[in-house]
């Protein structure tokens, strides 16, 4: 939930550290004994997670006769990326890295670079008869193996295959239905209808406290906000992955031609619309800079309900324990129909299914350790291991289904039900999303879920049903970058150009909306276009166009 726009400011520093890392890793580090495996991993202390003292860690240590030692970071994307790069640059890196895709995973470019330098090891020869569960997963979902295979044809790491239905449509808008009822309004269906609703939220005291304290529209980081508001004008992807610039989110495909969306007049019109909302005080001033904690503080304000609508993937910004019932007030708003229609929407294809890897083995790991690590991963891919790794202890964190229970996907047999952990103990016994190596649709959607979507127990069903509003509105302009293979010197060249352009568009978008740049000024628009050109926009498009043509 870290601000995407705040993270962009640190990109230059991270890139410099990355370069240092690659330069520093040429010599082999010292290793620890074969029964001691060191792992770099993120942990969430706020949810009670302590990887050194964790039920699943203890299970792994006993099952595989190893002692796990963790070098940890948190779930903040900026901090995690920086600490990972520093770890590599030190030369004293661990036996393995085990990451979370939406926090900070390895990009394909990083994998090929580090693999070529011998810092990380190829896994191809370690996958086979000794990893039956992983092999079976590759066979069941060929896209999983394809996702794991780098442009050079090798498997340098294992990605997360997280077939998360609600995650695959991240750019959602959640609106306070109680406020709509109070004001006698319907959910908006167009950008201008949205403006009318937001104006009413701002001026007509829908929370009834006699104060002008309502926030019509808020967000955390701005990525979802821009994607939702701009998609009625043109296809606008939301990057839901790891570090900035890893995916070519700014690109589209128009009539078979790779296009940098920010060079189009429709993009200018879209930003102009968002800017007008911001200028009229209809968008929270903190929408582009605040983190998740700040948004949650507003959603759970002790002064009462103050949020009219929020652009986030799901309504985590409000807690179920508020006595005023605000938890049940927010409902999803379908894609808006604008000049581009309502079929310009973006499907992310699964939040965890991003090219790259969450797990790699370094050259610090001995052959014995390599085998142990792959056995651990293979166990986590198995059904039994997955349940314990992601969720925790049976009977404590999850239970077997009972007669009458209903799976999230009602066409499936229910397989497990999660219990409600006390606050601050949700990950006390588990590795959580770090363990989502193979969460296919069958696994995820066989979870028992309450049928009342406005209870905490029915939350997953609430997300599942909400997402149905967005499915079917995918854009024909979506550029299938995951089908494109770019290797060698071209990949090295692309990595720099892509990082610079993607980060710059993130920054410039916020500057246009907040008035630092004037979207109505031809001079400012021309300067923006020149900035893109100077950063290599033409070459950026050319590289992807050539590779895409060759892949067809």
Q: Could you outline the blueprint of secondary structure elements for this entry?
A:
Elements: H1 4-9, H2 11-24, E1 36-42, H3 55-64, E2 67-73, H4 77-90, E3 96-98, H5 101-104, H6 108-116, H7 132-140, H8 142-148, E4 161-162, E5 173-176, H9 177-183, H10 191-203, E6 218-219, H11 223-230, E7 251-254, E8 257-260, H12 265-279, H13 292-299, E9 309-311, E10 330-333, E11 359-361, H14 367-381, H15 383-390, E12 398-399, E13 417-418, E14 438-439, H16 441-445, H17 459-467, H18 488-514, H19 522-534, H20 537-551
Parallel strand pairs: 1-2, 1-3, 4-14, 6-9
Antiparallel strand pairs: 3-11, 5-9, 5-10, 7-8, 12-13
How is this structure best described in words?
With 552 residues, the chain is an alpha/beta fold. The chain has 2 domains: 32-166 and 351-448, Periplasmic binding protein-like II (D-Maltodextrin-Binding Protein, domain 2), CATH 3.40.190; 170-346 and 477-551, D-Maltodextrin-Binding Protein, domain 2, CATH 3.40.190.10. It has helices at 4-9, 11-24, 55-64, 77-90, 101-104, 108-116, 132-140, 142-148, 177-183, 191-203, 223-230, 265-279, 292-299, 367-381, 383-390, 441-445, 459-467, 488-514, 522-534, 537-551, and strands at 36-42, 67-73, 96-98, 161-162, 173-176, 218-219, 251-254, 257-260, 309-311, 330-333, 359-361, 398-399, 417-418, 438-439. β7 (251-254) and β8 form a beta hairpin. The longest helix has 27 residues, at 488-514.
């Amino acid at each position: 939930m870290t601000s995407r726009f705040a993270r962009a400011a640190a990109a230059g520093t991270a890139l410099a550290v990355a370069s240092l890392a690659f330069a520093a890793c040429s010599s082999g580090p010292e290793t620890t004994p074969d029964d001691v495996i060191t792992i770099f991993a993120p942990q969430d202390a706020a949810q009670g997670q302590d990887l050194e003292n964790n039920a699943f860690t203890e299970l792994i240590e006993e099952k595989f006769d190893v002692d796990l030692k963790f070098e940890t970071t948190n779930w903040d994307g900026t901090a995690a990326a920086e600490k990972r790069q520093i770890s590599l640059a030190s030369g004293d890196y661990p036996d393995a890295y085990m990451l979370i895709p939406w926090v900070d995973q390895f990009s394909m470019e990083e994998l090929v670079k580090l693999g070529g330098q011998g810092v990380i090891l190829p896994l191809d020869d370690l996958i086979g008869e000794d990893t039956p569960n992983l092999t079976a997963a590759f066979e069941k979902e060929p896209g999983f193996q394809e996702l794991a295979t780098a442009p050079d044809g090798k498997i340098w790491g294992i990605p997360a295959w997280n077939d998360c239905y609600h995650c695959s449509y991240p750019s959602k808008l959640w609106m306070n239905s109680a406020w709509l009822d109070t004001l006698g309004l319907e959910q908006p269906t167009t950008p201008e209808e949205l403006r009318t609703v937001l104006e009413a939220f701002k001026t007509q005291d829908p929370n009834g406290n006699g104060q002008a304290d309502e926030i019509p529209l808020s967000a955390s980081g701005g990525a979802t906000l821009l994607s939702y508001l701009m998609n009625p004008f043109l296809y606008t992807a939301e990057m839901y992955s790891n570090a900035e610039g890893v995916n070519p989110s700014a690109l589209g495909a128009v009539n078979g031609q790779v296009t940098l969306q920010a060079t189009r007049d429709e993009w200018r019109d879209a930003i102009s619309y968002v800017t007008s909302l911001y200028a009229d005080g209809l968008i929270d001033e903190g929408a582009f800079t605040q983190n998740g904690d700040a948004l949650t503080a507003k959603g759970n304000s002790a002064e009462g309900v103050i949020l009219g609508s929020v652009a986030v993937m799901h309504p985590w910004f409000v807690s179920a324990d508020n006595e005023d019932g605000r938890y049940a007030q927010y409902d999803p708003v379908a894609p808006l129909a604008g000049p581009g229609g309502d079929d310009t929407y973006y499907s992310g294809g699964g939040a965890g299914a991003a090219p790259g890897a969450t797990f790699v083995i370094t050259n610090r790991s001995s052959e014995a350790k390599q085998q142990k690590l792959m056995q651990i991963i293979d166990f986590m891919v198995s059904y039994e291991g997955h349940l314990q790794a992601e969720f925790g202890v049976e009977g404590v964190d999850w239970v077997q289904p009972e007669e009458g229970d209903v799976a999230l996907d009602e066409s499936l047999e229910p397989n497990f039900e999660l219990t409600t952990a006390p606050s601050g103990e949700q990950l006390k016994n588990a590795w959580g999303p770090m363990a989502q190596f193979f969460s296919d649709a069958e696994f995820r959607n066989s979870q028992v879920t309450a049928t009342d979507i406005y209870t905490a127990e029915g939350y997953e069903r609430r997300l599942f049903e909400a997402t149905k509003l967005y499915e079917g509105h995918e854009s024909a302009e979506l550029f299938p970058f995951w089908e494109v293979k770019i290797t060698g010197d071209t990949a090295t060249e692309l990595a720099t150009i892509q990082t610079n352009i993607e980060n710059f568009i993130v920054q410039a978008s916020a500057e246009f909306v907040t008035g630092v740049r004037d979207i109505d000024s031809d001079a400012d628009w021309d300067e923006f276009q020149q900035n893109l050109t100077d950063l290599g926009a033409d070459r950026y498009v050319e590289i992807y166009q050539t590779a895409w043509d060759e892949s067809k």
